[in-house]
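To make this tangible, this section ends with a sequence with its structure tokens:
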Amino acid sequence: MNFFEHQDRAHRNTKKLVFLLLLAVLTLIAITVLLVLFLLSYGQVDAKQSDLLSQMVDTANLELVVAVGLGVLAVVSLGSLYKLSQLSAGGKVVAEAMGGRLLNINTRDADERKVLNVVEEMAIAGGTAVPPVYLMEDQSINAFAAGYKGQDAVIGITRGCIQLLNREELQGVIAHEFSHILHGDMRLNIRLVGILHGILIIGIAGYFLMRSAAFSGGSRRNNNGLPLLALGLGLMVIGYSGTFFGNLIKAAVSRQREFLADSSAVQYTRNPFGIAGALKKIGGHSYGSMLSNSHAPEFSHMFFGQGVSMALGSMMATHPPLEERIRRIEPNWNGQFPSVAGATHSASAHATASSEMASGFAQATPAAATANVNDTSAMECIGVLSEEHVAVAQQTLADIPAEIKAAAHEPFSARALVYCLLLDMHPGIRTTQLQKLQDKAHPATYQTVQKFEAQLSQLPRRFHLPLLDLCLPALKQQSDQQYQIFKRNMIILIRADQAVDIFEWALYRIVCHGLEPRKDSLSRYKLAETQGACQLLISVMARAGHNNESEAIQAYNSAATEAGMPSMGLLPSGQINLQLLDKALEQLNRLRPLEKPRLLKAMAASINHDGKVTPTEAELFRAIADSLDCPIPPLLEGQRLV
């Protein structure tokens, strides 16, 4: 199953969850109506000499059913919307609820540096933005990925995980979490939390009704309080029963996704012993993967390992048994868990981590980076990490000067690096840009621009997008006001020459997409419904790689045929407006998952028309794919696009 099939499955599973929610709400409405009819009828049976069932039938009317139904629907909907609004800011809300502390990207702590290094190399290898990392001060071995999309994703990890696992095992755990990010599991996880909270609200409402009836004292003086007490008890039973069955669904869905993430981690790292070793250490550790935070049950389906003990054992478990997960990865395992001591530092661990801090990563040779490329195209690598891409990421990050990498990890200097990437090579335009920046930017940021502008102008083009990915976690730490100033300054730099070139637009697009996650939507377009947007997008791609008009037309026609829209022609340069392109990408982002490959293949057909891929074309292709939520790993030497 490829990236787009995973995304399509996640989208269909989300629709199934909505359908199950509707069924659950209808069931809750039906049971609540019966409960209300029972309470209204019970006291009148003796007086009318009728049986209870007949009295309930007599009491029933359309107005009552509608009123109860709307009441239940309102409670569940408001409960779900309230929880989803709390989580709308993305994964950081989950991480903070779990007691996570955002790691300082420039930390000097060896363990913290180690996990940040692994996360950075995985992100660069996958062509995704580097997610912020949150540390939970818990001695257990566990981790999670949370968010709606890759743009607002975070990685959470326990202190025990980074101290007790070696780098190989830690890489397996992080690869497992990146699988959840790339396969769209996080969105499903967030919605499960919202759905279950809405159903739980029914039980909570019943609890407060019972308390109200009990403290009113009416039940001791007369029977007026009994119906309220009975209604509260009934709603508690209904609500908590609904939550119980909802948790059963959550557990079943989660277990299957964990198997997929385990196998993906092996595929990404080509090393089954990394993730298998981490699972074995969970089994041998006294704390295991159990988390002590009070919010752990709410987010239990998001964790790497079973985070909480569950009633009814395996039926309610959100994760498969450790033994089964290990044997799927390592069939010849002897069944023995290693003895794992408490989370302590060893001299060798410090030495290993210190060397990683100095060099960035375990070094990869260029030969290792391309040894297994074979005939796999870039399109086939979307959403799928590989050993080759990890090796290239390690080498890329090792080759970026240490001073620049350190600057990318701090908000003020990260802004300065982005400004430097936007500076024009023409001396006159560059001078104008620097003058405008001196007037508009923070003095400390401008000083950093002066410090790095010459060095970045010499930095090879292939490092620009990885450097941008490294900057994103620091840029996310800006306040809203700081971000608006930063965005305004980017626009000022881009417009300094009264024109917007493709690289400037691509860089601006990646930054905005990474820092301004769009709200998710269940509605999706077919490619045939977006032909105007496709025409604009393919026209931009054709003109970016071909200065000759006839070649641009031929490139456009190749792409249009691939997309199935040959009747629409190449747009004139004067009709290509990059603001309209932004709007077109917003629409195309909502294409059905299985429709997106056709669009990407159409763009690739335009690029491949002349048999070469220019840096501008590669950057534009990456920016557009990023805007479509289709992460493109770095192109390997000799690798074709499709």
